[in-house]
Amino acid sequence: MFALVLLSLFGGAAAIGSLQELVIMDEWQGNPINAPNWGPISMSSDGSKATAASMHGGSDDFAWVSIDGGETWTKTSEEARDVVITPDGSKFVAVVTGTVGKKIRLSTDDGATWTDTGSPDTVSWGSLATNGDGTKMAALGDTNSVYLSSDGGATWTAAGVTQQEWATVDMSADGTTIALGVNGGKIWISSDGGSTFTEAAASLETKWRAIDMTPDGSKIAAASQQGGVWVSSDGGTTWTEGIPADHKVFRGVAISDDGMTIVTNNCCNGENWISYDGGASFSYMHWRLNRYWEKIALSGDGSKVLCTSSGDGGRIYMGKATTTTVVTSTMTNTTTVPTMTTTVTVTSSVTMTETSTEAVDETGETSTTAGSTSAGSTSGGSADTTTTEDSGSNVVEVTLTLTVDDPAVITENATLTNAMIQGFADVMGVEASQVTLEFEVARRLRDRRLQVQLQAIFSVTFPDAAAAEESKDAIEAVSVADTNQAISDAVVGAGFGGTIEVTGKEAVIAVVPEGPTGGAMPALTVGVLTQLAIALLQA
User: Fold this and answer.
1) Which of 84, 36, 76, 73 is nearest to 58 (CA)?
2) CB-side neighbour CA atoms (13 Å) of 114
3) Residue 298: exposed, middle, or buried by beta-carbon count in 10 A (0-12, 13-18, 19+)?
4) How far is residue 521's CA from residue 511's CA, in Å, rounded to a whole number?
5) Which phi and psi (to 5°) does residue 184 adopt?
């Protein structure tokens, strides 16, 4: 059981109805397909299809296919050492070494049947990559060669690149950008579809094991056996260390389509890491599975992860990373109460671990204890999180947990949201003009079923900190039942015909972090932190 939080806060306001969405995975699902080793794994951009290679050894290596996002897997007839799916999910491409000979083979019917491409049968093939729809391909040969196809595999041509011990390859969606990693060398880049390749002088000289890029080829992540994980945001010209080399033996890496989410795994230490800021910082994910991790795949939106493991009881693991859109709501009342707006202008980075104020109970629910949590930055997965006393804040934040039929019916309706503010103000004994409102939608995958929960986060501003503290005690004294009655009556009176119930209530004093010059920054509320929290739980 663990908690992982790593996000940034972004200033600005958005139109009413914009929501912070959290996807919470209660546990990683180990697919019940056991193999001594699982190797390469690949997933379509939308996460609906996937393929992986089981590495039993010798002629017992097979390509497996999933057409339900990794829930179930089917063993194909292909004895393969590597297999990929095109990002659009239309084709599966396998490097075959079994009874059909040394071939690169293709399936266009989800692995049911396979046909030879025109790949030379004199070459023992290694890793391969395709563009978005499989019309262009790149494959590594056993003679330190690179072969390219621009007609869906019908014909292949040796690329004019210096022979190296090539270990990994990837290609952009249009096939223009190709990246190669050397086993004991640097990374090489082509920006003309493979006509020419240039050594990326700024890349590390190490044993590269995996490379992945965004569809436009502008952002690249690379993992090495001895040199850590590196990221480029300019198509491979410059490189920045994301995870230092002392963690060793990284074998897999994957990057989301926008380049913001990066996942990677470490074989020997059983570590898995995730970044939500394009590789500027990584956080260690405590999956408590103690596996020898091999390769890793990520859906285009960064919401789904597939990972292979080796050794005793090797399996395919599926889980949820997180997709987040950090927004605030601006609510303008057009009926009976004054204009109310919510604006967040703080830009910061927050990390919480098991020892921070973010807690997880045995049911997998998250809760936040009262008190302020300072904003800190993280690098290489180490948390920099402290807890301080509340100091000088004149804002009380009240988080109500709601059960509703459809959150959007409320969050996208200004009349209903303003009614909620008025009902809240009435029951808490404050003026509606003191109150602002933000929403959070939490989507939790539990027992393979998605549950939706709405949180309404009310911020109440008082003249000074003393008044805020006194009013917080009064607000805490209002029961959940009375709060539920007031909110329900208010929204029903405004025309709401669905089901709404307040099931939880928490009041805290908002945090006022110290600014970069020592002054107070705008209030960074615990609710905003809660909106940015992501819990990946292992029961």
Assistant:
1) 36
2) 24
3) buried
4) 10
5) 100, 35
Instruction: Measure the CA–CA gap between 267 and 251, rounded to whole angstroms.
Output: 6
Residue 72: what pLDDT?
85
Mean pLDDT per 10-residue interval, the chain, length 539 residues: 26 27 40 69 95 71 88 87 94 81 90 94 90 96 91 95 93 97 96 96 93 97 91 96 82 94 81 85 64 87 86 72 39 34 30 26 32 30 33 83 83 90 95 89 51 81 91 93 94 90 89 43 39 38
Q: Which residues share a beta bridge with 138?
A: 129, 148
Q: How many Cα atoms occupy the beta-carbon half-sphere of 53 within 13 Å? A: 26
Q: Find, among 453, 455, 470, 539, the residue nearest to 505 by Cα.
A: 455
pLDDT of 43 reads 96
If DSSP codes are grouped into helix, strand and coil, which group holds residue 283? Answer: strand
For the chain, the first-to-last Cα distance in angstroms comes to 5
For 269, the token pair is: 């230490």
Q: Report the distance separating Cα 400 and Cα 505, nearest Å.
A: 5
Secondary structure string (H, E, C) spanning 364-414: CCEEECCCEECCCCCECEECCCCEECCCCCCEEEEEEEEEECCHHHHHCCH
- Cα–Cα distance for residue pair 182/204, rounded to 1 Å: 10
Cα dihedral 148, 151, 153, 156 sign: negative
330-414-425 Cα angle (round to 5)? 80
Of 25, 33, 31, which is closest to residue 539 (Cα–Cα)?
25
The two beta strands, 14-15 and 329-331, are parallel
pLDDT number for residue 169: 97
Helix (H, G, I), strand (E, B) or coil at 422: helix
Asked if 465 contacts 392 with a C-beta cutoff of 8 angstroms, the reply is: yes
Cβ–Cβ contacts within 10 Å for residue 230, how many?
27
The per-residue pLDDT for 56 is 62
User: What per-residue confidence (pLDDT) applies to 283?
Assistant: 76
Paired tokens of 443: 């989507």
